[in-house]
Design goal:
Length: about 90
């Protein structure tokens, strides 16, 4: 049984990840999906973010200043636990 099935129907947006110097803000509880991440780094610039990647059984919690590097292709689903921001590095 695959416990890491993500229902993308409730995601507010799915975008292709691109590097940028500007942070993207997320409202508390807002969920976004990103694709094209292999080798990309998500940097939490504010607040607390939850994220998981396709075919990965682990959840990841990032606080401001922490980052996550995607090591496989596929989608990443991310949500802000308290209102936060991220940027691709």
């Amino acid at each position: 049984m695959n416990r890491n099935i993500v229902n993308l129907a409730g995601i507010s947006q799915i975008t292709t990840a691109t590097e940028g110097s500007s942070s993207k803000r997320l409202a508390r509880g807002q969920v976004v999906g990103l694709k094209g991440l292999s080798g990309s780094r998500v940097l939490c610039t504010e607040g607390v973010l939850w994220l998981t990647t396709e075919d990965d059984l682990d959840d990841h919690i990032l606080e401001a200043g922490q980052s996550f590097t995607a090591n496989r292709p596929g989608k990443l689903v991310m949500s802000s636990l308290d209102g936060g921001a991220y940027r691709m590095a």
